[in-house]
Amino acid sequence: MAQTADGLSPEAPLPAADGADTDADIIVTGSRIARPETDASTPVNVVGQEEIKLSGNVNIEKTLAQIPQAIGSQFGSATSNTVPGGFADVNLRGFGATRNLVLVNGRRYAIYGPEQVTDLNTIPSSLVKRVEVVTGGSSAVYGSDAITGVVNFIMRDDFEGVEGRAQLNLDRPTGTPVYTFDLTLGGNFAEGRGNLVVSGNYLKRNSITRGERGSFAFLSLNDGCVVRGTSSPNTAGTPFTPPAGMGCVAGGGELGFVAGGSGDIPNGRFSGIPTFAAANPALQSAYAAAGLGQVGGRGFTFNDAGTAARPQISPQDDFNLGPDNYLIQPQERWMINSFGHYDFTDSITGYMELHYSNNVVNARLAPTNVGAPTLFDVNNPYLTPQLQEVLRQLDLAEIDPITVAAGTSSRTTTRGDGLAVLTAGRRYAEVGARMASERRNVFRGAWGLRGDIGSLSENALSDLKFDVYYTYARSENTLKLSNAISRSRLQASLLSVGGAAPVCNIFGQNIDDACASAIAINATNTTVATQQVAQASVTGTLFNLPAGPVGFSTGVEWRKTSAEFSPDSFLASGDVAGFNPGLPTQGSTSVKEVFGEVRIPLLSDIRFIDSLTANAAFRYSDYSLSGVGGVWTYLGGLDWKISPDITIRGQYQRAIRAPNVNELFGGITRVVGVATDPCSDRGPASQQTPAVRAVCVATGVPNAAVFTRDVQPEPIMPADFGGNPNLGEEKSDTYTLGVVLTPRFDRRLFISVDYFNIGLEGAVASLGGGLQNTLNLCYVVLQDANSEFCQAIRRNPNSGGITDPFVAQIRNANTGMLKTSGIDIAARYRLDLDFGFPGLGSASNLTFQTNWTWLNEFTSTPVAAFPNIKNKCVGSFGPTCGQPLPRWRGTSRITWEVEDLSLSVRHRYLGPVTTDRYLVPLRQGSAATPALDSIVYPRLAAQNYIDLSFNYDVNENIQFFGGANNVFNNNPPITTQGPNANTFSATYDVIGTEFFLGASFKF
User: Fold this and answer.
1) What pTM value is reported for the model?
2) I need a surface site. Which of 158, 498, 514, 578 has the fewest CB within 10 A?
3) Which helix (H) or strand (E) holds 54?
4) Are 296 and 311 in contact (CB under 8 A)?
């Protein structure tokens, strides 16, 4: 539950700075104007130092992901296991990490790459005093990126003494340790005019593979048909094949999960050839002699020795991708931070912030697979005479010359030249699991002067203060990839040279060390990102009104961001299999800005108006980008304190986000992900209509293959994504309206209820909003083969599948719209008790805090040109809507404090969700909406997590704390639509019960 270090509620007045006079003016995140009171026009959620400690989370992003205003960030958490990856971020309101802004002490922090996002691994948890989260547009105050809000880390920058802290975390299923150690030193100098704080941190998080976790994570699950009575929402059932022409249930089975994985298996799967029924008589005869009389679209495989072939009929032959993959990525971090300030005079203070961190985060994936058209000698000595004849007949059946590309090389085969083409799909386990090591070095410095200017007159431009600073941040990232396969080397190793036997025998399990060495390849990518910010501002009182002084802030700002991604030459060429290829990315953006803000007290001390205050702000930004140019952002709001008991607040904000370097200048990146091809048999039967069939045929699917597994043999498919330098800015409008109750009859009670509504236009996204949406728009919605969405789909001319090298082309555009709305509810109550605990105290208190979000709407419009085509995602999950978006999310904490001991219990709640495969077409009114009972386990149940923690102050210098999260060891809900480990690992707990114990010592 979000709270401040002294137990204040999530949106209660903020505490004064350590050691500061509580009557001093305070700046609340979301405004640059200091004020004597801390009420904010827009809701501010506060996560305090005590909450960070009691949560047991050693990484700050996990604590932020648990507040109800945030949605799981699949690519920015310890469970992502993606390449590239190794970073941590926060996803406010579900709009993505690029649409919220991270600040430290009110200033922009370091970015890690062309995406221009802050890696939260560079934020030292031990130095965080509190985190203030504003969920709603804040561009007028802070500039670009603050579409869904701002996360502002307020650090402990005035410290005296020595403080050490250590913490150990252990999960129940595997006992894998996580260690973190902190040492902070601080002291005053120059007779108290200066203070310097230096803090070091070491963190080591050990890995957990899906195989080590076992349970739900071990298998690669697919939706399927199983024997009645064997279906389970937690694991695979026994596969069942209904009679021909009958559905699963009608044929005697039931829907359920089946063990699946990749069709590229260690013994090899050879396909892309005519089925037995479609072969010519000579080829049929060769098939029969080789034991392949029933060969179908899935091709054939070998026994371990490679001496006998058989048709690969069952998907149960597929390779289980699960055990090799990391569920929790290992991390090792060294970090040092320093904060200092010095009073040059009574009115001028210099300050400095320095940061350096070295972060290493590894990813591990199943061994590399290659599944591509491949040339073989028809007299390959590793094959039996019967299989050699199969290859000879395939060679003689060629009509036109066939060019086979293999990375940086290509060869053309003609009829009767002794070369045959097969799609060779193999998992090269002998080379080893794919490994990626992400090493990120980050440096950031901030230097500035602040102080008092004084007053130009008693009644106008008084109490003036200034702040001038410059920040420079540089992030250097090295990504080392190992155990990949060179496509060109692999093809060369499969052909004879000068009559000698090919280097590699990939039939069965016959790859030796010489072959593995010949085809293996490593790669190294580097990324450098820099950010510079220079700002000067003045705040104070503009003039006085009868209701009070008019506060103002104004200033200028300059920012420049640059990034360069240099992929390994082999990787950029497309020669590397096992990791996504990418092209070099280089570019920079700069902006010059002027901004201003006023806070105007309109009325005060009259009936029903204790105070009425208006606030407004603007920012004009002049970008170096031709697609953006000059843009305005602005806000306006009212705070109406009816009485000391009740306050009503409301605000409107226009915010923008300029496209980042990656969106503008990013080279082509190939991404392989879960998607459903409407031309295959994986889509709902209700969508397998003549109209869809016609579009499938028009876009390259052979008529006989439409609605068959041959079109999509695996649940994943590739797509190329890339940048667009002509992108414009995203624009958003945010409305908030709320009420705050602080009744005089009991000042221990605090309640706030706030409505939010955020609409975003010109959303930068891949064409159509992503691969799945592009497929849906092409085949199900528009059904026009000449549309830009259908033109983006490329297919293998033989099978009709979207497989390498025939991949979908999805490029960036200001293509869509996003909208969300709902209600945030927060409450706190403190109850003083007249009993305590023997030996500790005779009195105690009980504090209850709760923070909830009710989601009314979450809608994406993939293409603004088709505003009626909306994906209404509230209450859903899946490949279209992404992470689960339940109606209700909330956390509550009850803490009992007696003198130096506190015991706390926290409840985390995530509401139920239903698959978007059903909800999205249903809400669109589509006649092709599948029946809910035709989808395997379409609902994920509500999740309730209970966490326990304690804190005990032995004395003023020694403190112990600890606890257990997810004490009932809940497993996450299982779905084949999740991006990792058969679930949504960024939303649900995946490691079961986690114990933690820590201690801090002060000297």
Assistant:
1) 0.87
2) 498
3) helix 49-55
4) yes
